[in-house]
Structure formats: C-alpha cells, structure tokens
Amino acid sequence: MRIARLLCDSCGTAIEGDFDSGRLGRLSREQIAFVEVFLECRGKIKDVEQRLGLSYPTVVARLDQVVEAMTGPTREAPREGDDPRGRHNAHTEEVLDALARGELTPAEAAARMRKKK
Known about the structure:
By secondary structure, the protein is mainly alpha-helical. It has helices spanning 29-40, 45-52, 56-71, 90-100, 106-116, and strands spanning 3-7, 14-19. Strand 1 and strand 2 (14-19) form a beta hairpin. The protein starts with a strand and ends with a helix.
C-alpha cells in the first residue's frame, strides 16, 4: 500500500503524488500497539512485561522485530541452502512469487512453506 493523495480537511486542497509513509509506516498494527506501550512505559522492559503479561525474552524479541521492520533486515551470514539474495531459500522465494502472482491462496502458501521444513 502507498500514500498517493494528501487532503487538507480545512480548505479542501489536495496534493497527489507518491509519498513515503516513513519508517513508522512500515510497522504492522500489532507492532504500533507494542511501540505505544513501550513508549508509555518509557522504555522500561520490566514495565512492558507487566503491562502486556509477557516474558523478558518475548518483549526483547518484539522490540527486535520493530527495529528490523523500521531499519530493514539485519545482514546475516548466509546459511547452507540459503539463496544468496537473502535469508530465504529458493523454495521460499518460489512460494512467495506464486502467492504474489495469485496462483496460491495464503493458506496454500503457508501449507507449502510448512511442508518444506
């Protein structure tokens, strides 16, 4: 999804173009909700744990996911069988491409991904 139109509620002026939603725009609803709690707790992981009823490792993992979504994936050394273009292997790329072309439903794609593991 992309932002293509900005509208002023006061005067009705509209601007059309291709606008960047920024780094926060890359986050899912769940990640945004997590960031809101994290900020309300002023970054104190212990408080986030208590507020969300999560363990320390889970809070840290969610925080890592937010950072990765905002900055892009971390560069890991390729593992055996991985595609040299990134973290996914060739099978994963094929399934994702078929999903993008509409050849598979999300459920079918998930089933194929699980079967390969």
